[in-house]
Amino acid sequence: MHRLLVLYREPADPDHFRDYYVTKHLPLVASWPGPLAWRYSFDVAALEGEAPYFAVFEADFADAAAMAAAQASPHGRRLAADVANYATGGVVIIHYPVQDGTG
């Protein structure tokens, strides 16, 4: 499995971010072909001190090639372009293969 992780910094207008994200951006995510699962949260907390991020999004793909294909699709490009409409504080996007833990 391969994970896409999007970390959003504090936006200029948190209320606009939340409203736009839930009513406009997430419906685009829901119809994005490619992810096996996705999730998000506005309740980002740090173990100590203040969290450096306002919100987080993650999506799981079968592998890196599936993620790349989803991002390169017209729908993926539309999603990427939409970020500028709400993420005024900036965004950090990373991806990585997910390894299963063993006890």
Automatic annotation (TrEMBL):
Lineage of origin: Bacteria, Bacillati, Actinomycetota, Actinomycetes, Kitasatosporales
GO MF annotation: an example: oxidoreductase activity
Annotated EthD domain residues: 10-88
Stored Gene3D superfamilies: 3.30.70.100
Protein name as annotated: EthD family reductase
Pfam families according to UniProt: EthD
